[in-house]
Design brief:
It is built from 21 helices and 2 strands. The chain is mainly α and 471 residues long. It has one domain. The chain has a two-stranded antiparallel sheet with strand order 1-2. A hairpin with a 6-residue loop joins β1 (158-159) and β2 (166-167). The longest helix has 34 residues, at 80-113. It is globular. The termini are far apart. The relative contact order is 0.19.
Length: 471
């Protein structure tokens, strides 16, 4: 778990990479110890991504991008360690609730997940994208939508996933792999902040993230005051995480959007240091990680990239995923380890927070140098490619230009993350139904998503018209 904390908190080294790195060491252990090691890493790496997101404004993992919006604002106000303590406790609560739901509802939720076809996943991704756009764009939804469209356009660079033809590569061989969203995310959030400080654009150029004290009693009071948000986010994370291929990043943005839409008068606004903006994505992250085990354990269908790697390791441990898993007793052991892991997440997480707090105490010039180093290492480590480093620098410059025009960065990254999935699911569905897009509205699940989308779009418009009529 300590290894997961430090890998997950290094930008560019994802939770998937942390699990992949630890599995070869687990082969030398007994089955029970190996399972404990792999499960522990998978849960801690997701939380750890929020540590550099809070102190350095660089999401450690894709699932941490949503938490960056409010957590970094709170760190600039001298509440860095308190923000991460709230984050850690909510991660633990969300994970516990997710594991409990995994134990109680695994067969039912897995059966529901199997009812999703390509069009159902298409509508799920569209819903997550629109939620992220409306939340992070404030009163400029069309600007946010344009940024998301730009991110979607960037996601098209590379090889077509269905026809295997190159597109938008301009005879540059390195672009055949596409523009990876992780270097782009590091550049937009991390490197752009450094460049803004250098050219004098940053409003916070004289501010440094301050760790401050933990303030345990106040942190517990914040969690109790917003406990319905913790439960709501855990349920959202479980519902999305149980869907094969959805992942913690979609769950985090979905929970963030639901929290923003259900808060009538946020003070301060979301994106400017609201505690719900910290609680909702982190509560959903770990519950989504737990829920991803539902289809993996019940049907042997990986819920995300992490469980896909773990399922391969299960076969080495002589564990066969599927219905027989519950008869052999292995499922009970996995559930127990997952639950115990949530408790151990607290001391492991505090260790990571204390380590990064020392970095945050350094002078701002050294911190900015550390941001550059983390950004370069994180971008390069993804594929051991210098091209990704140049992509990171390019998006850093692009991020400065966008923020000068007050264009939100989060929708662009969300468009790059969800773009390939939206394209793949839409085209797969159209191929399956011979080009009949009307088939996208035939299932009850698809119709429910369409109704939800209409509500997301129309509710702010009706609220605006109502305010205008009152004034």
């Amino acid at each position: 778990m300590t290894f997961g904390i430090f890998v997950g908190s290094t930008p560019g080294l994802t939770a998937t990479m942390a699990v992949a790195l630890i599995i070869p060491f687990s082969f030398q252990l007994e089955k029970e110890a190996a399972l404990a090691m792999v499960i522990g890493v998978s849960f801690t790496a997701i939380f750890a991504g929020d540590i550099p997101a809070t102190f350095l404004r660089i999401p450690g993992t894709p699932a941490s991008a949503a938490a960056t919006l409010d957590a970094h604002h709170l760190a600039l106000k001298g509440k860095g360690k308190q923000t991460l303590l709230v984050n850690l406790l909510c991660s633990t609560l969300g994970g516990v609730l997710g594991v409990v739901m995994l134990i109680v509802l695994a067969p039912q939720l897995a059966a529901f997940a199997l009812e999703f076809g390509p069009f159902e996943y298409f509508w799920l991704c569209i819903t997550g994208l629109i939620l992220g756009v409306t939340v992070s764009s404030g009163r400029r939804p069309f600007v946010g939508l344009s940024a998301a469209g730009l991110g979607f356009a960037f996601s098209l660079v590379g090889v077509d996933p269905l026809t295997n033809q190159s597109r938008f590569v301009f005879n540059i061989g390195e672009l055949s792999e596409g523009l990876n969203f992780i270097p782009a995310m590091i550049g937009l959030f991390g490197m752009s902040e450094v460049l803004k400080t250098v050219v004098g654009d940053s409003a916070d150029r004289h501010k440094t993230p301050v760790p401050g004290p933990f303030r345990l009693r106040e942190s517990l009071s914040i969690i109790l005051r917003h406990f319905p948000t913790v439960v709501q986010s855990a349920i959202t994370g479980t519902a999305i995480g149980a869907l094969p291929g959805a992942g913690a990043d979609i769950a985090a943005w979905g929970a963030y959007g639901v929290s923003e839409k259900t808060t009538l008068k946020p003070n301060p606004p979301f994106g400017q240091g609201n505690w719900k903006g910290v609680i909702s994505p982190t509560g959903a992250n770990n519950s989504a990680v737990a829920a991803a085990w539902i289809p993996a354990l019940v049907f042997g269908v990986p819920g995300d990239a992490v469980t896909a790697i773990v399922l391969g390791a299960f076969l080495v441990y002589d564990i066969t995923p599927g219905p027989t898993l519950f008869e052999s007793g292995n499922a009970d052991f996995i559930f127990s380890i997952a639950l115990i892991t949530q408790v151990f997440l607290i001391p492991a997480g505090i260790l990571g927070i204390l380590f990064f707090s020392q970095i945050a105490k350094l002078p701002r010039g050294i911190i900015l140098t550390a941001v550059v180093i983390f950004s370069v290492v994180g971008a390069f480590a993804m594929n051991n490619s210098l091209t990704d480093v140049w992509v990171m620098f390019g998006f850093g410059i692009f991020g400065v230009l966008l923020e000068r025009q007050r264009v939100p960065l989060a929708p662009l990254i969300l468009g790059m993350i969800l773009g390939p999935k939206i394209e793949e699911y839409l085209r797969t569905g159209l191929i399956s139904y011979r080009g009949e897009f009307s088939a996208a509205f035939t299932s009850h699940i698809s119709r429910a998503f369409v109704i939800l989308l209409a509500g997301i779009v129309l509710f702010p418009l009706l609220r605006f018209l109502r305010k205008k009529r009152v004034n």
